[in-house]
Amino acid sequence: MEHADALIEQNRLLGELIAEADPTLEVPSCPGWNVHQLLTHVGRLDRWAAMIVRERADARVEVRSVPDGKPPAELPAAVDWLTDSARLILDAVAATGADAPVWTFLGPRPAAWWVRRRLHESVVHRADVAIALGVPYAVEPEVAADGVSEWLDLLAARPASDEAPPLAPGATLHLHATDEGLGAAGEWMVRGGETGLAWEHGHGKGTAAVRGTAADLLLALMRRIDADAPGLQVIGDGPTWTAWRDRTAF
């Protein structure tokens, strides 16, 4: 999929949803935030990512140093600011080069890494606003499936710690998107090991398996819907799935 086009589209959809909301509306899936704070968070970190790429940063950039890091007070102008924030990332990547190494919280990565990361930030936070407004949420299966893969990439890059791992060594979690047309991109085998997690696309018998649309799988992994939400089918060892969710906070 083309991450740049998807980022612009998801950011636009997020802005349209926010434009219909009361900025003071609380966002229950982001405790302590209202819609205005969510908008500020997404736009500011988009601009932060653009600054990292533009400056070819090799160390963490202070978020407070980001130029124009606060949205205008008026909601229509704030939505325009949010839209501009996403475009700044693409402009920065085009100027710097998609393959140029820059700082990320996982270590040096190609500049284009930030496009995918910010895309899925918009995807999930759009769900947050939809939940707050009580309106339906939909996202293309291809985008949602890529969001699942990106999330698993982030988790697999975490170093092992003394805390309980998401999966016990030798345990497996099989995720299966039921959308038509995804093929191998819609199935994931996740394995626990002594040094952390590993995953690959594929079909197999897991200690636990979860079936649902790619959108529902993504929202469940991100704890935006319950582990036993109606759209999900959990097969095998249910506690493996619930422990996974409990131990994979961002």
TrEMBL record:
Keyword Cell cycle: no
SUPFAM superfamilies: DinB/YfiT-like putative metalloenzymes
Protein name: Maleylpyruvate isomerase family mycothiol-dependent enzyme
Domain MDMPI C-terminal: 142-241
InterPro entries linked to this entry: DinB/YfiT-like, Maleyloyr_isom, MDMPI_C-term_domain, MDMPI_metal-binding
GO molecular function: isomerase activity
Pfam families associated with the record: MDMPI_C, MDMPI_N
Annotated Mycothiol-dependent maleylpyruvate isomerase metal-binding domain residues: 6-130
Keywords: Isomerase
This protein's record includes keyword Isomerase: yes
